[in-house]
Amino acid sequence: FPAAFNAEQVRSACLSGSPWLLVATEDASAYAVEAGSGSSLPWPAGFQVDALLCPEEASCILGMSCETTDSVLCCWRLPSGNEMWRRQTGTKLLQPLVYIAKLKAVAAGCFEGVLTWDASDGSATRRLKTELPVDRIWYFPQQELICARGSEILGLTTHLSTWSVNALAAGTGDSPVWEKSSNEMVMALAGDGGSLFARVGSVIHAWDGKLGKELWQRAQMELPRLPTLPTYLQLDSGVLYVGAGSFLLALMQPCSS
């Protein structure tokens, strides 16, 4: 369908659980595009949107900037685009932006750890501290776990911290339930059932999600080692698929291919 914006200027996009495609462009505008008709509802974002999020549990759109040391976090109504709230965070946020339904909060990583805000009014609710600056976070709703990868500037050491959302919701402490350190980059994480799967350097790991205990590991030396090359992990019907560059690997659990 014809778009009301120049596709070459699309900066970020998000396909929501509802029939809307959300698009942010380089001219600080955003659009809600109805998938059925292709009609576009534009609204002025007022800042450069680097990440968009549309939680299925909330009738709103969340967006943030990542280019400055005082990132903006904003919430709009869907599909009108009317602004509900906006916050100057006072720090540089990093993608991605995640919504945690049990906490009714939005979370993002930053140099100080993981920050969360109340999704209804944008008030700051938590600061989960880490040993190293956080450059990537993951949220696994099935296990109710938040994972944060902290890395040194030179990338020589990475530190993975994991929090229980249930413990955070119960107010029993903001400390990680388990942590791991490595001199290799944690390049990808995936969750299924009670397990987490990770690519750390050239090794595929399976960990118990609650305890962090290693269940199995397998070295895959043929995996591309370029840290900037995305790795994709997907578990389907007991098979763990690992994709990196032009390489695709299928592992049967626990460790036979």
What report would you give on this structure?
The protein folds into two domains: 1-129, Lipocalin (Beta Barrel), CATH 2.40.128; 130-257, Methylamine Dehydrogenase, Chain H, CATH 2.130.10. It has 257 residues and is mainly β. The strands form six sheets. Strands 1-2-3-4 form a four-stranded antiparallel β-sheet, with no helix packed on it. β1 and β2 form a beta hairpin. The model has no long low-confidence stretch (mean pLDDT 86). It contains one helix and 23 strands.
Q: What are the main properties of this structure?
A:
257 residues, Lipocalin, Methylamine Dehydrogenase, Chain H, four-stranded antiparallel beta sheet, 1 helix, 23 strands
Q: Which segments are poorly predicted (pLDDT under 50) over 5 or more consecutive residues?
A: none
Give the strand content: over 45%
Strand order of the largest sheet: 1-2-3-4
Beta strands, count: 23
Please state the second-level CATH architecture of the largest domain: Beta Barrel
How much is the radius of gyration in Å?
A: 19 Å
Overall, the morphology is globular
Q: What's the CATH C level of the largest domain?
A: Mainly Beta
- In the CATH hierarchy, the third-tier topology of the largest domain is known as Lipocalin
Q: Between the first and last Cα atoms, what is the distance in angstroms?
A: 43 Å
Number of domains: 2
Order of helices and strands: EEEEEEEEEEEEEEEHEEEEEEEE
- The helicity comes to under 10%
